Amino acid sequence: MVEAKNLCMKYDKSERFALENLTFQIDRGEFVFFVGSSGAGKSTILKLMIRELKPTEGTLKVFGRNVARLPRHRLPYLRRNIGMVFQDFRLMEERTAYDNVAFAMIVTGASRKEISKRVPHVLGLVGLHEKNMTRVCDLSGGEQQRVGLARAIVNRPAMIIADEPTGNLDPGTSLDIMTLLRSINLRGSTVLVATHNREIVDRFKKRVLYLENGKLVGDEQKGIYTHVH
Amino acid sequence: MFISGFFYIIGETFKGLYRNRWMCITSTGVVVVTLLMLGIFMLVNLNIGFITDTVKEQVEIVIYIDEAADEAELEQLERMLLNHGLLEEVRYVSSEEHMDRLRRQLGRVLEGYDAEQDNPLLASYEVKTLLPDNVVPLAREFETYPAVSAVFYGQGYVENLFAVTGVIQMVGLGLMVGLSITAVFLIAHTIKLTVMMRQKEISIMKYVGATNWFIRWPYILEGLLMGFVGAALPLLGLYFIYQYSVEWITVNELVFLSLLPVELVILELAKYLIPLGIGLGILGSTFSMSRFLRV
Hints:
heterodimer, B: four-stranded antiparallel β-sheet, 9 helices
């Protein structure tokens, strides 16, 4: 599903590599944590996967295609197969939970009938069935992240990428969100989570890729943050 | 895709206008002010053009025939005038007809004067050119014929009139071009502010897989609507201003020549201002957006 070979990334104005010589493979249906301190390169990997950035050297294949060579007009179609969850939620705050989730379906060309059936169902899955028509700005942080999750899964993507999804949430809510991500993974989607939340990583015992200064320093199945570290 | 996408785009256009109403009002206001100024210049220019054309059309050349000219020279002149491609009308006026005109003008002053015995007035040709701008060069051409004694066309007056109106029209044109360029910059910057306020929204659209065109359309339609309203309002204003001005000028008899009719002028302005407003709105939106679409 994701295959990185000698992957390097250097930002324009930076002296050092943000990612250096990364080689790893992620299979369909896996749940993977990318862990490491701030600036280790976790978010950079995720950005490369959705082609928000292009690698400086090496190759990164997502769904079997080299994303760096993907023509610009094909990018939307790559992104429709990847559900994104962000630390800062990135929701349209003045719009309702329903509108935010429906939007991800509208851009794919889903019919109105399909949208009106699927969106309430997905909002129900994340526990927001009663807040369909509440504006996002009137929801709590945890609820907003649930809307973000609903938006990420509404098109049944093959892969979910979550960049610090619990970064702005309290421990209890963080656990709820991660439990939701695990249930999404159990339904067949590949889930990649960038985090430095030690407690969450240790609790879920999934595959952990550990990054330090842009280098991959550990790759452990059923890993624990502390062990890898 | 088409139906849900289409309704989404239309809906988003109006929602976007409502959500960002103050910014939209500002952008439209900028279009209104610039197009109003442009419209005023166009109105003035159109009327100056109309007045000068009317004056130019009234200018004719009078060619006085030399009494000493022989038959061959007279025939050469007549043939040339009748076959000239740049003339609209050629009329021969005999010395007797000139005398009759003089009698009508002077009335009793010439009573008892025997014009048949002693008529000093020369026969002439009165010609009208097809294009007013040809008056001066043609008059110079006619002077070269041996049968011609003198040529009159309002020397000095015509050249000055043509020069002054030419300068006024060039200045007007320059101002209109300058204003159009200013309008493009002002509108592009104002719309850019609107787009910047919605930068986050655009990046979210990109993350969920919206194509650039899907994102662009509501903004383009917003630009189109703002441009249309921004052109329609000054047109409406100019209609009333011009109508009032024409009435005032007519009542006060300020211009010896009539101005262009209101409906004709407004239609002429609409032909330029509406597409210009719409074009400015669309261009402004498209240019302002391009930077934010590279996510």
